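$ ./design --mode recover --in tokens.txt
reading tokens...
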């Protein structure tokens, strides 16, 4: 299987970051986000999580349909591969992961599976299997939209479980924003003030 990814690595990176795309596949928006974090000093890999079934295509609807065939085991393996590859390339053992929408759910799951993770940043993703929350060994930053009924249905229980397990985390809810508020290529979803604030918070968290 060929594992595809967009790599953006500055000359003197301060850490390694895997960015997980939405269910729409690896697109120009995620490549741009990867480049933005690279400009802030991170060695970034934005994997194509549709690689097991041939990779992302130009048609968004096809990607959305196909991504349902990618298992949690596969996304964990892909994330681990690129985290390790970045560490090998940079000689920096400082691994973090960040993801949006479907990718936010991947981040939550990977936090339960990859012990080497230092930081995990989730944007409006589904909560992990409740039985696995106790296995999280990383610090979490969680970004939620006020107007996101489906994701928010599991938000409070997830945060309570993190608190009960004494897992380091911080959570933010963005007033007036909806699902996918960070995606500036979707004018029906983009919420500029929330996106800018979330980016600043994510940077501060990853740098700390």
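writing sequence...
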């Amino acid at each position: 299987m060929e594992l595809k990814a967009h790599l953006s690595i500055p000359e003197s990176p301060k850490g390694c970051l895997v960015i997980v795309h939405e269910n729409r596949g690896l697109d120009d928006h995620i490549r741009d986000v990867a480049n933005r974090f690279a400009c802030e000093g991170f060695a970034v890999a934005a994997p194509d999580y549709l690689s097991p079934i041939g990779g992302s295509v130009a048609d968004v609807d096809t990607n959305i349909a196909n991504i349902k065939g990618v298992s949690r085991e596969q996304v964990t393996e892909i994330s681990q591969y690129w985290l390790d590859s970045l560490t090998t390339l940079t000689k920096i053992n400082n691994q973090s992961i960040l993801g949006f929408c479907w990718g936010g759910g991947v981040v939550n799951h990977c936090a339960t599976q990859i012990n080497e993770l230092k930081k995990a940043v989730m944007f409006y993703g589904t909560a992990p299997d409740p039985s696995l929350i106790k296995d999280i060994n990383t610090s979490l930053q969680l970004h939620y939209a006020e107007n996101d009924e489906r994701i928010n249905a599991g938000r409070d229980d997830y945060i309570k479980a993190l608190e009960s397990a004494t897992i380091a985390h911080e959570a933010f809810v963005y007033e007036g924003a909806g699902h996918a508020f960070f995606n500036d290529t979707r004018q029906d979803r983009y919420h500029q003030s929330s996106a800018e604030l979330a980016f600043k918070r994510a940077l501060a968290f990853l740098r700390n």
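exit 0
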